[in-house]
Amino acid sequence: MDKLPLPYSHLRSQLESGQTSCLQVVNSYLEQINALNSTYNVFLEVYEEESILRAKMIDEKLKVGKAGKLAGMVVGIKDLLCYEGHASSAGSKILDSFKSTFSATVVQRLLDEDAIIIGRQNCDEFGMGSTNENSAFGPVLNYKNKNKVAGGSSGGSAVAVQADMCRVSLGTDTGGSVRMPASFCGISGLKPTYGKVSRWGLIAYASSFDTIGPMAKNVEDIELVLQVIAGEDGMDSTLFDASKSYNRNNKIAYIKEVVEHPSLQKEIRDAFFQQIETLKQLGYEIEAVDFPYLEQLLPTYYVLTTAEASSNLSRFDGVKYGHRTSNPKDLIDLYKKSRMEGFGEEVKRRIMLGTFVLSADYYDAYYTKAQKVRRLIKDFTDKLFEQYDFIVSPTTATTAYSIGEKTKDPIQMFLGDLFTVQANVIGLPALSIPMGEDLEGMPMGFQIMGKAFDEDAILGLGKKLNNE
Ligand code: GLN
């Protein structure tokens, strides 16, 4: 495994002692972006001049000891987050011409602490995908191997960190979109507890699942960014401050059905059990548990998220903002054509699926049923967490696919989320950290899921395992 770089805290002392400057830091990332971006398709837009100006301004603040907590931390943001005066396109043609009039809470909090936002990162359209191949602006390539996908939907955000084009990225995770690309690219990524980080200014996909999470090489950097972006915000009423101190018993569970799953790549299984040995050496007691709902996770997730998406995406109608068809016959024609031309194939599939499961005749059979199963999964998992501090698993069943390998078969694509969606279905936090490489040299990931609002414990364990 590659050695981890030094965390932001180290850069911070160099900035304060004058050994380096924000300007130098920004320039080195810009150089890397200029060298790689046309090949890897990571940033849809680079805020070059703006970053340089901000760097100079923050260098001045550092000199007088007035710089914020993230001074000089170079961050990239997924194209699903709004940034005032900047374009946000959600990886979609339908928002290609859209500029945001306000900033997402997370973006504003980064700026307030003097982070430098270097650009906006490619992603699957509206966050729908697992390989970044659903972006209207082309796929992102994996920096380890150009023939492999980056993972999705935060593919640009993952490769930007992997290839040192920025220190930290803000991705979004509705079913695994921070953790899966983190795993495919050999970096770390956190999906926070639902309700921990404000969704204000995040272009919604499935509102009861969506979360925003940091991705970085160092878990320490993720921790710092989380502290800045988390917490109460008048703009998102689902937030609450529920930091609890749990009783711990140093017991960790893994799910039998996961490690026995036929799709699990052998090297990943082996690396996972090695990681279990490491945990034992660290003093944890590890037990295998049954989880009878593994097969129900993906159907539950896809019924509910497509239902929410069909409702959320109804606002893109060619009237209020974004793409509008050129010669509509009448209003209905304007709606239809604008949406037909603006949305990609996967987004249309999900809108149709979601509209179907919400339709009067099928509502109870699909939507209501899925909500009930969601509850069962939550109750069962909550019981497990009465006995265990963490539930661990591989982040994904395989390493990164080849470009084009899964695009013909949506079900195969959906299977990629098998181990990550549980955390989203029930709103729990989960971290993916690197777990070595397979025989082809592609990165593998280890997932630590924890109790609600127990990010500190998850990140603490992540740091131990990362040797930070
Ligand atoms: N791959 C999943 C999906 O397509 C997860 C996406 C996400 O987390 N945004 O829905």
The succession of helices and strands, N to C, reads HHEHEHEEEHEHEEHEHHEHHHHEHHEEH
Distance between the termini: 14 Å
Radius of gyration: 21 Å
Largest sheet: 11 strands, mixed
- How much of the sequence lies in strands comes to 5-15%
DSSP summary: helix tally: 16
Proportion in helices: 40-55%
Query: Structural class per helix/strand content?
Result: alpha/beta
Poorly predicted runs are none
Q: Give average pLDDT, whole number.
A: 96
In total, the number of strands is 13
Bound molecules: glutamine
Strand arrangement in the largest pleated sheet? 1-3-2-6-8-7-12-13-11-9-10
State the shape: globular
Task: Draw up the topology in text.
Elements: H1 8-17, H2 22-40, E1 43-46, H3 48-63, E2 74-78, H4 105-112, E3 116-121, E4 141-142, E5 145-149, H5 155-162, E6 168-173, H6 179-185, E7 188-191, E8 211-216, H7 219-229, E9 251-255, H8 256-259, H9 266-281, E10 285-289, H10 294-312, H11 331-342, H12 345-358, H13 363-387, E11 390-394, H14 410-415, H15 421-426, E12 430-437, E13 443-450, H16 455-465
Parallel strand pairs: 2-3, 2-6, 9-10, 9-11
Antiparallel strand pairs: 1-3, 4-5, 6-8, 7-8, 7-12, 11-13, 12-13
Helix pairs in contact: 2-3, 7-16, 10-12, 10-13
